[in-house]
Amino acid sequence: MGLVVTGILQTGDIKALETLLKNAGLPLDPIQVISGDDSTEGVARRQSGPRIIMGDNAGHVPGIGDRGPGLAYFRHESLSDRLGDLEIPDSEVENYVEALGAGRSIVAYFAKPDSLAQVEAIFRDSGLAKVKTF
C-alpha cells in the first residue's frame, strides 16, 4: 500500500493545507512542495577522486579555500527524478511534469498508515486537484 499522498496545487501557497493538517494534529514536516522552477542541484558541489589528490587540486579540501575548481559530483536532478522519489509511477510522471510546466505545484505528504485516509481528505478539502496515493 502506498503512503505518499500527492495533489496538484494551482499556486505554491500551502497555508490552507498546513492549517488543516495542524488542526487535525498532523505534523507538517512530511510535506514536500515541488514547483517547475525549483532549483534541483544537490547541496554538495565537489568530489574527491584521483584529481583531488594528484591533479589540479592536490592538497585542496573541497569547499574550503580558493584553490582549484573541484569536480562536480551531484548531477542536476530532473523533475522526473524528483517525482520518482515520491513513488509516482513512470506512467504518471509526465502528467505531473506537464502540471509543473503550466505553473502549478505538486504537493506530497508522506503519511503513516493510520493517517492516510485523513491526509487524502485534507488534500481534497484544501482544494488540491488530482489527489492520489502512491
Topology:
Layout: E1 4-9, H1 15-23, E2 31-35, H2 50-54, H3 79-85, H4 90-101, E3 105-110, H5 116-125, E4 129-133
Antiparallel strand pairs: 1-3, 1-4, 2-3
Helix pairs in contact: 3-4
Describe this structure in words.
With 134 residues, this protein is α+β, with helices and mostly antiparallel strands. The chain contains 5 helices and 4 strands. It has a 4-stranded antiparallel sheet, sandwiched between helices. Helix 3 crosses helix 4 (90-101). Residues 39-54 and 68-76 have low confidence and may be disordered.
Oligomer: single chain
Q: What gross morphology would you assign?
A: globular
Helical region count?
Answer: 5
Q: First CA to last CA: what distance?
A: 8 Å
Side by side, the strands of the main sheet go: 2-3-1-4
Mean pLDDT: 77
SS-based class: alpha+beta
Please state the CA-atom Rg, rounded to the nearest Å.
19 Å
Short description:
This protein has helices at residues 15-23, 50-54, 79-85, 90-101, 116-125; strands spanning 4-9, 31-35, 105-110, 129-133. With 134 residues, it is an alpha+beta fold.
